[in-house]
Amino acid sequence: MTSPDGFSPQVPEPEAAWDRLHPLSVWATAIVVGFFLVPSAIVGAVVLAIAGQTLWAFLPVPASLAFLALMTYLDLLRLRATRFRVTGERMEVRSGIVAKSYRSIPRERVRSVDVAAPVFVRIFGLCSVTVGTGEKVGSGGSDQLQLLYVTADQGEALRRDLLDRGRAARAAVSPAAGEGGEDAADAEEAGADEVELARLKPAWLGFASATSATLGVGLGAIAGLLGLNAQTQGVGWDWLSGRLGLPTPDEMSSYVMARLLVVVPTALIALLVSGVVVLTVVAVETWWNYRLTREPDGTVRLRRGLLTSVSLSVEERRLNGVTLHEPFVLRLAGGADVRAVATGLAAADAKKTSAKSRLSPGMPRERARDLAAALMRTPDSPLDVPLAPHPGSALRRRLTRAGVATLVGAVAAALLAWAHALATEAWWSHVHEVEEEIIPLPLATRAVEATPSWGWAVAAALFGVLAVGYAVGSYRALGHGLHPRYLVVRQGMAARDTVTLERSAVIGWRITRSPFQRWAGLADVAATTAAGGGMYAAVDVGLDQGLAWADAAVPGLLEPFLVREGGQEP
């Protein structure tokens, strides 16, 4: 229909309908809460019955069922109150039972879409969708929207739709012609193939136990049991040993102390094996079905998980670099993992952000370097750039710290040796009694009592050797360099990180100097960026060396603040 002046009236774009979360999400949440809550209540009732509290034993199960019913009712209210929709310009979510909330994110600010399907919702065909913008909101983490839960097909459609910049632009420019262009784009995408960057090899799971936490896993389980025994003041162990006819704590301590050279290595091997098993199982659950691909829609997509299926998509143009992460034990095993330096992966804290940015499991170091080069799409990898060493004064700073730590350790060892020599038999007897209330097998204080006085000096000497070795290793890890497209920094002894960052992504420089650094002629020169951790520093670099590196990395950015030799400003 045309108007008398010959112009066709503009047809307004139909408003997108509001969608709901899937109704089965309520029952999925109820099942997982009940799975943990009801068995715990049954165990509590049994414990109360054994303790003779017959009347109280009838309380835990009904109370847990009542709490489960309340949580399910509140979840139903949440389901009814939550609505979401995606238009050509933004994603909107309405929620809230008492306090109503409306949140909206423009589509051009969407940086990542995380689709996760824990096993308890996967059996219902559901998943959660987390949409991130990469922007910080106060101290509470990043700006993101989360939907709990939608169908798996709906989650995949949201992922594709929100990260399709071309479709959003077409819808914004020509809503009326959006359908034909959309079909053509879909046909074009269907003809394109994804590029596989990495796929899990079962041998890589062996790197999961190459961590300093391997022994800690077994020690943590033992500490939990000891804590439970301490809370019951040894009643739990006495009850168990009485039922099974186990030796008394004194008998077991005497047996172990008489065979210390056999028991200690055996215990360490047992802790090591238990840690390896647990960490390998966790790695299987986390990284099974791992694939990293470059998608036709211009995103890098990570898929992994056995029980909890995770799919994370990041726009490739927002991938501003990578981090080659090499913890000490993993480095000794010849392994490393790759992490993204990208906008849109920020989480509530630095630890969660680091975990979310991880793009690979532990793998052979050369394979990790190849993967990093593929992600950066450079014929010559920035990780192959020779790094400039830092001044010798940076080594002296670390050796000074090691010397101070060694001195403190020696003083502490001397005080302990002195206290050991003054301890009387009555004092040791009292300490043994206290330990027996905490540990069913009281060996720690007996081992300390049997330690010769020169043992403290040996411990202090070993501590000093480790401190000096750590200082030298920390200095050798320092380095910085330049690639035609990237700047490169490396640091760390316990966990060595080699970071590559696009020079075009640097938005500023931060130069910091402590009084000790000024005395040594050193500085920390850090590049600030909107990606990743926000700041990547060349630590303890010579001042002139660091400023020259920063000026060459981003010409002109530091120019107004530099004074050239001869005192003339540029």
Instruction: Provide a count of the helices.
Output: 19
Query: Strands across the major sheet, in which order?
Result: 7-6-5-11-10-9-8
Q: What proportion of the residues is helical, as a percent range?
A: 40-55%
Strand content: 15-25%
Task: Note the overall shape.
Answer: flat
Q: List low-pLDDT spans.
A: 168-191
Radius of gyration: 30 Å
- How far the N terminus sits from the C terminus, by CA atoms, comes to 67 Å
Secondary structure: number of strands: 20
The overall pLDDT, averaged over residues, is 83
**Structural class, from secondary structure content?**
alpha+beta
3D structure, described in words:
The protein is of the alpha+beta class and 570 residues long. Helices cover 48% and strands 22% of the residues. It has 19 helices and 20 strands. It has helices at residues 24-50, 60-81, 119-122, 152-163, 165-173, 178-191, 213-231, 235-244, 249-258, 260-287, 328-332, 350-356, 365-376, 392-422, 425-438, 444-450, 454-477, 515-520, 543-553, and strands at residues 19-20, 83-86, 90-95, 101-106, 112-117, 126-136, 142-151, 195-199, 291-294, 299-304, 309-315, 319-327, 335-342, 363-364, 479-482, 486-491, 495-502, 506-512, 522-529, 535-542. The strands form 4 sheets. It has a 7-stranded antiparallel beta sheet with strand order 7-6-5-11-10-9-8, sandwiched between helices. The chain has a 6-stranded antiparallel beta sheet with strand order 14-13-12-17-16-15, with helices on both faces. A hairpin with a 5-residue loop joins strand 3 (90-95) and strand 4 (101-106). The longest helix is centred in the C-terminal third of the chain and has 31 residues, at 392-422. It is flat, with a radius of gyration of 30 Å. Residues 168-191 have low confidence and may be disordered.
